[in-house]
Amino acid sequence: MTLLVALKAVSDLLLPTIMADIIDIGIAKSDIDYILQAGTIMITIAIFGGIFAILSRYFASKISAHIGADLRQKVFEKITYLSFHEINQFGASSLITRTTNDITQIQNVLGVALRLAFFAPLMLFSTLFITLSKDFQLTIVIISGTLLLMAFMTIILHFSIPLFKRNQKMIDAINLVVKERLNGVREIRAFNKTQFEEEKFNKKSLELQQISTTANRLLSALMPAVQLTFSVISILLVWYGALRIENGSLQIGELMAFLQYSVQLVLSIVMLLIVFIVIPRAKVSIERVIEILDIENEITDNGTEINSQGRGKIEYRHVSFFYDKPRNKDKKILPTLDDVTTILEPGKYHAIIGSTGSGKSSMIRLLERFYDPTSGEILIDDIDIKKYPNKYLKQIISVSSQKVEILSGTIRSNVDINNCLTDEAVIDALKKAGAYEFVEKLKDGIHHKLNRSGSNLSGGQKQRISIARALAKKSLIYIFDDSFSALDYKTETKVKDALLKALENKTIIVVAQKIQSIQNAHNILVMDQGKLVASGTHQELKKNCKIYQEIINSQKNTEIYE
User: Fold this and answer.
1) How far is CA 272 from CA 15, 212, 266, 389, 422, in A?
2) Which domain does 452 fall in, by range?
3) Most Cβ neighbours (<10 Å): which of 80, 235, 350, 424?
4) Counting Cβ atoms within 10 Å, is residue 554 exposed (0-12), middle (13-18) or buried (19+)?
5) Can you name the residues that pair with 531 across neighbouring β-strands?
6) Residue 365 covered by a domain
7) Per residue in 193-205, pLDDT tens?
8) Are 350 and 522 in contact, with CB atoms under 8 Å apart?
9) Quick one: pLDDT band at residue 332, thresholds 50, 70, 90?
10) How far apart are CA 266 and CA 230, in angstroms?
């Protein structure tokens, strides 16, 4: 690549000298043979120069595309292993921009830089060296104009770089507005907030337009400055060169060569100008991508323990957890979990209940190791979960999440995420989850196509597919985080009975807000404001736990619990 660029530069530098010889020797002496011979050499060099230019552009594009693909893959892998806290720190819209727009900017700059960042300085300094060796006085004219142009370029870039940083941040902001609009389109229309959202988007878009316009106005001054510099240099060279020709100290061919070299010099500056225009944009993008690649994961994966005899015993030891640690020591923030200590015996049906925000789902997220406890430890089969490899931990825990995520594809691909089950195993999981009764009625059965986010399924159907997905995975611990909220009581009871039968001798955890969903559990944990206030069976808690009694009294059809 470097060799091709160097050869292209050499070919361009030879042409003015050959042209000068044709004028001063061939034309001045009417030597047709010399003109033809030098002209043939000139054409040959020009052809090879064109070939070198094409090859250098090809390899530059190929290299930049490969680097862009590798960088995009590394960023995506890094994002995949970020903790929820780190993802929230950047924001989903910013991560999307960094993975797509920023890396595209870097790739485009690489394509330009690989061709011009070496070629332009090489041409610039080679041209100056050649002109200095030929005529010092004429070279001073060229250098003076070049220095003025470079000073002007420096001032422009000094003011434009901060604008490009603001430009990328505004792209993040617009992505966030669009993402919120698409995700909340039903709520926006239901509450007649469409106009408000449009005004919000237009405001951000106008800010981006103003920043981009200001930056482009600054950069637009560069090209006229280049043209003006070239014109002034040409006029001065012709004027001063004519005086030198008149007194016999300079030949016409040499002056023509100087004019060509001045063109090459200005073109070199233009190429450097292009590099300097794209580099500020890439600099911002590079900093944003490096920010992701350099972040140290809060959730380390250094564990080596694998317990082949594990049964699924879970223990929380004095676990406390903050989503956001207080920055100001004087400002008190209540912990999401506060000194939680409990043991969930293996092979039992456990439940967690409490009001909204009591810490139920947070206990599950810590168990899955999406976050690490602020203090305390969580053990599975008497081993701290930090000592397990994350891959092994995900294998022994199967989760049906509170927020159902349906991927585009088929019902089968959503149940068999790892694509390792037979059709019979997928159907069996759907039957246990109570989902096969509606799946078999579909034209394509388990191969029925699902839209993005499962928009062609009802809420209850999506939940049952999510439950089937959890059941299809062979694990020690099965967690159902409010996974029955969209099911009616009859369907929920039917599905739950099938689950308990299918998962006999497995550790089951059901997170719920309705007591009717968990009253048959062997052990119920009652959470309130991040604290574990009681545990026991339904009958025990109904007698001894005031908060549990309040939950019963607050829910309808209390006769169910009598």
Assistant:
1) 21, 22, 10, 50, 60
2) 314-326+333-556
3) 350
4) exposed
5) 528
6) yes
7) 788 888 888 888 8
8) yes
9) low
10) 6
Cα 407 vs. chain centroid, distance in angstroms?
19
Residue of 378, 381, 230, 373 lying closest to 305 (CA atoms)? 381
Q: How many DSSP H helices and E strands does the chain contain? A: 19, 12
pLDDT (tens digit per residue) in 253-265? 877 887 787 778 7
In-domain check, residue 302: no
Mean pLDDT of 369-376: 89
Looking at the fold, whether 321 and 278 belong to one and the same domain comes out as no
Domain count, the chain: 2
H or E segment at 364? helix 360-368
Q: How far apart are CA 516 and CA 514, in angstroms?
A: 5
Q: Distance (Å, rounded) from C-alpha 77 to C-alpha 293?
A: 10
What CA dihedral angle connects 100, 103, 105 and 110, to 10 degrees? Answer: -150
Helix (H) or strand (E) holding 399: strand 397-400
Which token pair is 427?
């159907």
Beta bridge partners of 339: none
Number of Cβ within 10 Å of residue 70's Cβ equals: 11
Which tokens is 382 given?
A: 């008497």
The tens digit of pLDDT for each residue in 282-328 reads 777 888 888 888 887 777 777 788 877 888 899 999 999 988 765 55
Residue 60 covered by a domain: no
SS3 string, 33-92, reads: HHHHHHHHHHHHHHHHHHHHHHHHHHHHHHHHHHHHHHHHHHHHHHHHCCCHHHHHHHCH
Q: How far is CA 335 from CA 36, 370, 386, 528, in A?
A: 88, 17, 21, 12
Q: Return the structure tokens found at 77.
A: 């892998």
The CA distance from 328 to 333, in Å, is 10
